[in-house]
Amino acid sequence: MSISSTVNMMSKVVLGAGDMLDIVARVWAELSPGETVLRVEVSQHEDYSFDDSVLESHDPATSQLFVAFDERFGNFKRAELMQVAMSRKFQLATIQAPGSIVAADAKIGRNVFVGAGAIVSAGAVVDYNSVIHAGATIGFGAKLKASCWVESGVNIGARAEIGAHATLRTGVIIAPSVKIGRYCEIGVPGHYRADVAAKTVFDPRYDEPLIVYGG
Question: In 104-117, which positions are buried (b, 16+ CB within 10 angstroms) versus exposed (e)?
Fold first, then answer.
């Protein structure tokens, strides 16, 4: 297995920045012995748009691509970078790390990363561009909408529903059938037994949840 910065036929390309770029590149290399995995770091312009010129030397017809970026700005920067790749007609991969367990009938979307030791149970649905970190558990029939971020050790109960662009931090337990609204950030460890409205932020710096209005 190798992580390279040169292009070859049928290459695997990891596009991104930071720790996620390194994590995904190494996992994909481990999953692809004898193949080349290209680690491509992307920068941002002064207006925070991505410099997609780094993709000009990569051919979408002969490459699979994965976008590896963190959860900043409610996962929207990762979604933006994914759109950059899609606009260039790249085929987006799904990556399940060694040691993860994904049920045969679970549905995993494009550009989803499932970390080592994570469990995605029977009947679960994980929509595109979501990240499930090592050791997280997605219960039976649970649904994660697009561009979610689930940190290590999070437990999502059976038939729970997690809205698009939600972020669940380490130590969070979502009870069965609970609904977490879109754009929520659940950052305070604990057992959440009631539905959480969209755009609600549980931040350990504050005693009460914050509600984001507008947008």
Answer: eebebbbbbbbbbb
CB atoms within 10 A of CB 25: 22
Tens digit of pLDDT at every position of the chain (215 positions):
455 544 445 689 999 999 999 999 999 999 999 898 999 999 999 999 999 999 999 999 999 999 999 999 999 999 999 999 999 999 999 999 999 999 999 999 999 999 999 999 999 999 999 999 999 999 999 999 999 999 999 999 999 999 999 999 999 999 999 999 999 999 999 999 999 999 999 999 888 888 887 76
Rounded CA separation 3/59 (Å): 18
How many domains is the chain partitioned into structurally?
A: 2
Residues 50 and 99 in one domain: no
Give the span between the Cα atoms of 106 and 118, in whole angstroms. 13
- Name every residue whose Cβ is closer than 8 Å to that of residue 184 and which is 6 or more positions away in sequence: 163, 166, 167, 196, 197, 198, 199, 200, 201
For residue 42, what are the domain limits?
2-92
Indicate the DSSP class of residue 67. Answer: E
CA distance 140 to 160: 9
Q: Which amino acid, 54?
A: V
- Alpha-carbon separation of residue 9 from 28, 60, 83, 150, 196 (angstroms): 16, 11, 23, 34, 47
Residue 82 lies in a domain: yes
Q: Is the pTM of this model over 0.85?
A: yes
